[in-house]
Design brief:
The chain is mainly β. The protein folds into two domains: about 160 residues, no CATH class; about 110 residues, Immunoglobulin-like (Sandwich), CATH 2.60.40. The protein has one helix and 26 strands. Strand 24 and strand 25 form a beta hairpin. The chain is elongated. It starts with 10 loop residues before the first helix and ends with a strand.
Length: about 280
């Protein structure tokens, strides 16, 4: 049913984010990390893209949690090929949360010269309200074809976690709070590492820096929380959570360090970021 495939859709996006590699002998190509699931029995919510061009969802997609994406490779048959006894093509998934830059995840892997499907795991940002997905097949000779729902993408709603507020610190230097803070709440911190990219570094293929948030209520004891996590050579938002202490005013600030001795602060021009505790 090739009408569901758009061979030129979002080529500009791919040019900007880098062409996904063909299937490779690497389990890391399967995608994001693990985490608590979105269903009551503790299993992960799953999105299934079937060979019959159906799409199904088991459980809610919940902000701050992890989902599985099960993609049948039979949906994309263009661009397949082999050389020297090995297949030289692969399929990559793309997920755009709330219209943001797409996150890539592999849905195929190369095993003993044959391309095999991979069930990917994908972390959902704590601030997300929706996600759009599409898929691309490519080969070593530059052929690309897309499964993009006739260029409309596959859209899914993201549910809000049953938790406290989300404090979001975005790359454009905006700060948002979506709910009131109360002592004892579990609050999620979404911090974009681009705010302190001066310390960005990598070594041996892994990120060699991280960011810590410090927080205190009413000038009391200072607590700390790591807000970044390694994703290969890059640092991404960890969407970590903490318990709001008792008090009236919550002050927070951030500190980036690297293995090479870099130290940088995000502290609202030394005034810190302040949030009322109700």
């Amino acid at each position: 049913m090739l009408s569901r495939t758009a061979v030129s859709f979002l080529s500009a996006t791919l040019a900007a984010t880098g062409l996904a590699a063909c299937a490779a002998d690497s389990p890391e190509q399967a995608g994001g990390g693990g985490g608590a699931g979105g269903k009551a029995d503790g299993t992960l919510t799953e999105l299934v893209f079937g060979a019959d061009w159906s799409e199904s969802q088991t459980g809610d997609i919940v902000a701050g949690q992890t989902i599985r994406v099960d993609y049948d490779l039979a949906r994309l048959t263009e661009c397949r090929g082999s050389t020297n006894g090995s297949e030289v093509w692969g399929v990559t998934g793309y997920a755009s949360f709330d219209g943001g830059a797409p996150v890539t995840f592999g849905v195929s892997n190369l095993v003993s010269g044959a391309v095999k499907p991979v069930v990917a795991e994908l972390d959902v940002p704590a601030t997300a309200t929706s996600v759009e997905m599409w898929f691309a097949i490519n080969n070593r000779w530059g052929c690309i074809a897309y499964d993009s729902n006739d260029s409309a993408n596959y859209r899914f709603d993201v549910e809000r976690a049953n938790a406290g507020a989300v404090l979001a610190f975005e790359s454009d230097w905006s700060e948002t709070q979506d709910r009131a803070l109360h002592a004892g709440d579990q609050v999620i911190v979404h911090y974009d590492p681009a705010r302190l990219a001066q310390c960005a570094a990598s070594t041996h293929g892994g990120a060699a820096w991280n960011i810590t948030m410090s927080y205190q209520a009413d000038g009391g004891p200072i607590n700390s929380l790591v807000v970044g996590r390694m994703n290969g050579s890059e640092l991404v938002a960890a969407d970590s959570s903490f318990t709001v202490p008792r008090g009236n005013d919550l002050a927070v600030w951030f500190h980036a360090t690297s293995v090479y001795g870099c130290n940088q602060y995000d502290s609202n021009m030394n005034a810190n970021y302040h949030f009322a505790i109700e």
